[in-house]
Design goal:
Blueprint lengths: L15 H4 L40 H72 L1
Length: 132
């Protein structure tokens, strides 16, 4: 066992009843109930909490603008997702095609460059043989 009582928290961890002594607490005198149990008004007006102002409802145009903004945001996200979903395979195919064409052109250019280099080297060796 790790030091916990069988039906309680581990040793050293206070329980709520140990932290707050409910029997020893009382409501402040200014708002304590009277002998009949009725809640009286506070005796000091400075202690009366100010009432929160009533929330005003947005006007129709404000509500329309708010809803339009939310719908536009959702629509933008949905359109972006659908466009990405539709364009991804097309862009992959286009990129593959560009890579394939570039490889073909590079191989063709490389063959031409090597053929010219070999022809120049053969011509140079023939020129040496004839002058020797």
């Amino acid at each position: 066992m790790n030091g916990a009582a069988p039906d309680g928290p581990p040793r050293g961890v206070p329980t709520l009843t140990e932290v707050v002594d409910w029997a020893g607490t009382a409501a402040p005198a200014s708002i304590a109930p009277d002998s009949a149990g009725n809640e009286p008004a506070a005796s000091d007006p400075a202690q009366v909490p100010a009432q929160a102002p009533l929330a005003t409802l947005p006007s129709e145009s404000e509500l329309t603008a708010l809803v339009l903004e939310r719908v536009q945001h959702e629509l933008d996200l949905m359109i972006e997702y659908r466009i990405r979903e539709a364009l991804t395979p097309l862009l992959v195919r286009a990129a593959d095609s560009v890579v394939r064409d570039a490889r073909h052109e590079l191989a063709s250019t490389l063959r031409d460059v090597i053929a010219r280099a070999v022809a120049q080297e053969l011509a140079r060796q023939r020129g040496r043989q004839q002058s020797a």
